[in-house]
């Protein structure tokens, strides 16, 4: 079984090397170049550094774009507190038309008129959204109504060092600020503060106050992750790992450390994680597929699209089949099966239909 899994991962890597290179996934996001920002306080290229952000290409004359907009606004609203920046780059010619449009729709994210940014991003049609992670690499590309859009954002967020403690007033301890972003020096800074609390001076009281804030922020994050664990263990695992990576070896990170250890001893979970990662690789493969002239985006259910991307889709089918066989009963395998049905042009089966089939067999 172990050998089979190792083989599967090897096969996935092999396939991805020759097909994934064609697209932009995993590569540095090109810089944005705009003619004009139409919304206030636009982000600069420096603002985007180390941040998770979304770039979407759209136009007012494109019906699917207009249809996608409420969803993007919803996501922009959900993720604004988490620091995700949403940018819509219009492919319209008329600035006035876009201005009128976004005012009427009360668009809540950044909108700009393009200045050839679209030529630097490889997409065949609009709307197309790109998720860029904190390392500046494109981590996802698809239609904004793709159900995996939000997952791509949460994945990028989970991997990003968030400024959980960046806004704390440090007073006399301002020199510790760089360590509060988390990482290997965090414990050092934490212990300096802890030591100061021993003195009953103003400085000691200030240190105690800062520590209290730090503890409660990390606790909140951990509690949110506990909640997530009940519905999405794989996502929660990534958040626990993030907490431990950033704040490990300190008191408030202990519950996250415990949770990680539990995951490490949980074979069912480890299988789920491997299966999820394997499906993610297939997603990357499909994200680089081209669309046919009649589709707005690569549509696996469309015969022309499928024909155009035969090598990639054939590989995807093989990989998804292997995933279903090797990881039966996992959530990821169920997702893989759904993708497989789509690729094979089968309509999604309802539960009762599946049962019926089983009975006839
Ligand atoms: Zn098509």
Describe the overall structure.
With 361 residues, this protein is an alpha/beta fold. The chain has three domains: 2-158, Glutaredoxin, CATH 3.40.30; 162-265, no CATH class; 269-360. Helix content is 55%, strand content 9%. The chain has helices spanning 2-19, 45-48, 63-79, 95-105, 117-120, 149-159, 186-196, 202-231, 233-247, 254-264, 267-287, 303-308, 310-326, 331-343, 351-360, and strands at residues 34-37, 53-58, 85-90, 110-114, 128-132, 138-142. The protein has a six-stranded mixed beta sheet, covered by helices on one side. α3 (63-79) links the parallel β2 (53-58) and β3 (85-90). It is flat. Residues 291-292, 294-295, 299, 302, 304-305 line the site of zinc ion.
Number of helical elements: 15
Strand % is 5-15%
**What is the CA-based Rg, rounded?**
23 Å
- Spatial strand order of the main sheet: 1-4-3-2-5-6
For the sheet with most strands, the description reads: 6 strands, mixed
What's the CATH C level of the largest domain?
Alpha Beta
Order of helices and strands: HEHEHEHEHEEHHHHHHHHHH
* CATH architecture tag of the largest domain: 3-Layer(aba) Sandwich
Quick recap:
This protein has helices at 2-19, 45-48, 63-79, 95-105, 117-120, 149-159, 186-196, 202-231, 233-247, 254-264, 267-287, 303-308, 310-326, 331-343, 351-360; strands at 34-37, 53-58, 85-90, 110-114, 128-132, 138-142. The protein has a six-stranded mixed β-sheet, with helices on one face.
């Amino acid at each position: 079984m172990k050998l089979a899994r190792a083989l599967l991962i090897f096969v996935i890597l092999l396939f991805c090397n020759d097909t994934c290179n064609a697209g932009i996934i995993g590569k540095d996001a090109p810089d944005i170049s705009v003619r004009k920002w139409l919304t206030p306080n636009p982000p600069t290229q420096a603002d985007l550094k180390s941040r998770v952000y979304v770039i979407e290409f759209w136009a007012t004359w494109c019906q699917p774009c207009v249809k996608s907009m409420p969803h993007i606004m919803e996501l922009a609203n959900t993720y604004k507190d988490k620091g995700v920046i949403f940018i819509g780059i219009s492919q319209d010619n008329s600035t006035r038309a876009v201005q009128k449009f976004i005012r009427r729709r009360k668009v809540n994210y950044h909108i700009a008129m393009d200045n050839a940014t679209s030529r630097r991003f490889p997409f065949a049609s609009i709307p197309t959204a790109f998720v860029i992670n904190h390392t500046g690499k494109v981590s996802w590309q698809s239609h904004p109504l793709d159900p995996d859009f939000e997952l791509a954002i949460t994945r990028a967020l989970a991997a990003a060092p968030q400024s959980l403690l960046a806004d704390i007033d440090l007073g006399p301890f301002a020199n510790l600020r760089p360590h509060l972003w988390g990482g290997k020096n965090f414990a050092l800074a934490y212990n300096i503060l802890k030591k100061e609390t021993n003195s009953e001076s103003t400085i000691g009281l200030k240190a105690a106050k800062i520590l209290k804030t730090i503890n409660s922020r990390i606790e909140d994050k951990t509690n949110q992750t506990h909640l997530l664990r009940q519905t999405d263990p794989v996502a929660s695992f990534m958040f626990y790992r993030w907490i431990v990576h950033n704040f490990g070896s300190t008191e408030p990170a202990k519950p996250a450390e415990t949770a990680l250890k539990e995951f490490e001893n949980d074979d069912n979970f480890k299988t789920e994680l491997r299966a999820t990662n394997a499906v993610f690789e297939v997603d990357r493969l499909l994200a680089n597929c081209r669309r046919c002239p009649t589709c707005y985006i690569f549509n696996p259910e469309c015969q022309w699209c499928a024909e155009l991307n035969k090598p990639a889709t054939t590989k995807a089918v093989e990989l998804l089949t292997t995933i279903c066989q090797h990881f039966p009963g996992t959530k990821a395998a169920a997702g893989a099966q759904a993708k497989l049905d789509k690729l094979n042009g089968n309509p999604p089966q309802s539960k009762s239909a599946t049962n019926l089939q089983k009975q006839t067999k």
